[in-house]
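debug: dumping io for the single-chain case to check the tokenizer round-trip. Nothing else runs in this session.
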Amino acid sequence: MKRSKWIWTVWTVVLLSCLVPYTLLTNIAAWYGSFLFWTCAGLVVIALNVFITKDFEEHDHD
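debug: decoded output
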């Protein structure tokens, strides 16, 4: 169940990546406003995925 919480956190970051640039950053004319947000959100998602999958083990299927 603990992993489920982190997966929902990833989905929250993904949802924010869709909403924030078109709501809170609408009045920023420079391209780097959304780009910076998306870059940070992408790094957060990568870090969360590494954290979520760190306990995965590879099983031999001989």
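debug: round-trip ok. The two ends are 30 Å apart (CA to CA).
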